[in-house]
Structures are given as C-alpha cells and as structure tokens.
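DM from R.C. (forwarded with permission)

"hey, sorry to bug you on a friday — could you get me a structure for this? deadline for the figure draft is monday and I only need the backbone to look sensible"
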Amino acid sequence: MAETSFHKAYGVSEDMVTELGDEIFDLSHNKQTRIGDAVREMDWDAIEAGRAGMGLTDGQIAERLELEVEQVTFIRTLVEGQRFHTGHYKRLYKLGGGKRYRPERENE
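My reply, with the result:
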C-alpha cells in the first residue's frame, strides 16, 4: 500500500499500519463476543461482565496504544477496507428490500 496525503495528514506511516493494524482491528468493535441476551433482559451485571468482549472505542484504543484518536480511526478504517469485501453488498443494493437473492436475477 502506498502512502497517501491522508497518511501524512494523520501522522501515520505504512509501518504503523503494518505493525498496529491487526491489533487495532482486534481491539475494535469489529470483534465482539456475546453470550446470551443481557441487554434485552436488562441484566446490568451481565452487561458489565461482558463488556470486555464487546470491543473498545477508537478513543479507548488510542489511550491504550498511546496514539491520537484520529490515527487509530485512520488505521482501523484502512484495515476494515482490506478485510471487508464491500463488493458483496452490490447484489443486496441491487436486489432491494423484501426480495430474496436468486442467481437468475443478477442480470436483471
């Protein structure tokens, strides 16, 4: 990945993305572990007990890694773009609400 003007604007190098990208992604809300349905049941003790598995905000990650929030957000969004295949959503957008996906509809 080539450095862009955005890298410079946020003070992020390619080495930082390589070194911290996976860690930031793993700490973020992109990785969540939930057991049960404590929110719906309004079980506040269970919600607090499970908070560690729910991921951290960019601000919390920045504090933990001693970075600026903007740096964490920039690195996280770069890594998300590499990991999530956004092209998969094109079929859903084209399909529209209330319809099921069928291969024969792809050419419509």
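R.C.: lifesaver. The chain is about 55% helix and 0% strand.
me: no worries. Helices lie at 5-10, 14-27, 44-50, 58-65, 69-83, 89-95.
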